């Protein structure tokens, strides 16, 4: 469960009283997620999500995330909407953290995605990329290539305690990526964390996207690489070509990849795998005492990275050209 910050009942009641959502009837820490503290808030007006922003979210970036969710919703992307308090503000402070209340989205995330789910995500991702085109704000990706070596340094020489050889494998991948990371690919607003737990479905149909707190301005194809990593591998570590094909075909029905993006896909997939391996590794080695959180396995992404390092072209992900 990701609850890093506890909220006292009186403090919560005073915070909620600033909104037009009635009094608090119940509040529960949410048993998913690893980044922020999330609570399901039941008030006299219905259900909401209360988020307290934690370590990786910079307070100055919050207007970008809040503005983006509103912008995307206006363009037909179903995502949580920030609730404004009586002063017209979406952001406040609670228990010493920046905090916001957003609308509750119906739907469930899928633990075992099928090729059909992967197609749904491919299409939704491309729609998100197009919908973000006229969003006026920019936010650099704080977890892109320049951040990876410093993140690895945070593992503080302890990588090999997680798996023998992990430090050497990571450094070799980092060297390769720093030499060849592509520049100038088509880009704009990307979600940057569209994992299964951030995509809701109702009766097999995609019903909404959540968790825009890594969203930023970066290459569209990198976002697709993140999704290929997160959705198209099986529990035994194998890449499922049918799922990759379903995702890429559905994406391209909405937004066609250009030749440079197709050529870059293998290295983008390596970068995406390394990025999630590194944040997971740092979190695995630094669980805050008393936090209710289940850290995610960094080695899952170490194995995915090894797979991508053997990939020669986007055809191996299922892209037909
Ligand atoms: N707007 C929402 N509507 C419904 N459930 C939500 C909403 N936001 C978050 N959740 C629930 O909370 C969980 C954790 O949220 P998430 O934003 O992924 O956490 P984190 O900020 O730690 O990444 C989700 O998997 C989902 O179950
Ligand atoms: N998707 C990331 C973790 C990001 O946080 P979450 O709270 O959305 O799960 C990963 O799997 O490493």
UniProtKB/TrEMBL annotation:
The gene is thrB. The lineage of its organism: Bacteria, Pseudomonadati, Pseudomonadota, Alphaproteobacteria, Hyphomicrobiales. GO terms for biological process: threonine biosynthetic process. Belongs to the pseudomonas-type ThrB family. InterPro entries: Aminoglycoside_PTrfase (IPR002575), Homoserine_kinase_II (IPR005280), Kinase-like_dom_sf (IPR011009), Pseudomonas-type_ThrB (IPR050249). Pathway: Amino-acid biosynthesis; L-threonine biosynthesis; L-threonine from L-aspartate: step 4/5. NCBIfam families: PRK05231.1, thrB_alt. It is an enzyme of class 2 (transferase). Its EC number is 2.7.1.39. Residues 27-255 form the Aminoglycoside phosphotransferase domain. It holds the Pfam family APH. SUPFAM superfamilies: Protein kinase-like (PK-like). Keywords: Amino-acid biosynthesis, ATP-binding, Kinase, Nucleotide-binding, Threonine biosynthesis, Transferase. GO terms for molecular function: ATP binding; homoserine kinase activity. This is Homoserine kinase. Signal peptide: none annotated. It catalyses: L-homoserine + ATP = O-phospho-L-homoserine + ADP + H(+).
